[in-house]
Give the backbone structure.
Amino acid sequence: MKKVIYLVVGLLLGAILMGIVVWNKMPDLMMINLESKYDFQTTVDKLIIAAYDNGWEVVNEIDIQERIMSFDYGDILRMQVIEICHADHSYTILQDDNNKKIAGIMPCRFAVYETHDGKVMISKMNIGLLSKMFGGVIQKVMGGVAEEEKTMLKTVIE
């Protein structure tokens, strides 16, 4: 009987520890953060060109620095979000009402920002990992999107 209690307690503690580890690692897993080899504006320009070259449309560019400063907050350094959309991919996912729940994370986004130590970084959601949580058409299409994003990012990180 004692062995069973130790086993149950051990399994419970192991599950709790694993939950804590996963919870703490999720931000690093869900977001991809890469350093650009170019200056800020060149990085933004090259990502926009790469999007068009890969059949995507740039649907919006948001100057986050300007917006923050317009509310009289301090300077956060340059930061721009580039929103891109691929109509074929969007249609393939969104034609099914059951898949429309992911519209809140569409279109895809790259955030380009400067750090106080002079680096230019690109941040994006880990679409490949996220797609696995949904399965089906979403996983298939978003898994392909993840590969297309890697191709676009190569223009500024390699």
Residues 18 and 108 are 31 Å apart (CA to CA). The two ends are 59 Å apart (CA to CA).
